[in-house]
Amino acid sequence: MTARTAIQLYTLRDVEADLETLLERVAAAGYDGVEFASRLPESDPETTAATLERLGLSVAGIHAAVGSLPGAHPSAMSRARVVELCRAVGTTNAVVPYLDAACFEDEAAVAETASALSALAEALADADVRLHYHNHDQEFQRIDGEYALERVLAQTDVELELDAGWAAYAGADPAALLDRYADRISLVHVKDVDAETGRATRLGTGCLDLDRLGERLRDSAVEWAIYEHDCPETPLDATAEDRHRLEARVLDR
Question: Which Pfam families match (predicted)?
Answer without folding.
Answer: AP_endonuc_2 (PF01261)
